[in-house]
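Our preliminary data section would be incomplete without showing what the modeling component actually yields. Below, a chain of 186 amino acids is followed by its predicted structure, encoded as tokens that our downstream tools consume directly.
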Amino acid sequence: MRHPGLLDRERAVLLLIDLQESYRRVLHGWDGVVTRAATLLRGCRLLDVPVLITEQYPKGLGHTAAEVASHLPPGTEVVEKLSMSCAGSARLTDDLAATGRTQVLIAGIETHACINQTVHDLLALRYQVHLARDATSSRRAADVEPAWTRMLAAGMLPTTSEQALLELVRTAEAPEFRSLQQLLKE
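Predicted structure:
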């Protein structure tokens, strides 16, 4: 019996939030965030974990950065939204519910805005929320810690991209383990 707080590939879905091109020059730690988000995406695809993705007002903020978009499963439809919280999009909450999954692993931006509000709302909807610390950030570094403090107090479970993928693969005996191990070395 595994602890219910560990990610499980049969219960988890990856939610990538607003990793859009316009943040490239302004986001604190952009390169690391998109690299880790792409690693999560590639690992989740390898492990058959469903992927959902959003874009905040793409007319003004552009589309998902190529480093991430190039790894999306074929036919993935980006959910466009105007609300800060992804849960403010009926399409996203419907798509999430349709997966039948109860754990949401999140990566994206910005920590103090869309991530924070999404985490709180998904917790209110009774999802178990895991947030990859190394795959999220804000424009100003000072905005990150207060958001993390609030999300932790609300019940969010912190993780990293590597920790999450190792929980999802579970054992070195898994057929995907060697491929995942190579991905984590990149």
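Residues 12-185 form a domain with the Rossmann fold fold (CATH 3.40.50.850). The two ends are 32 Å apart (CA to CA). Preliminary results of this kind motivate Aim 1 of the renewal.
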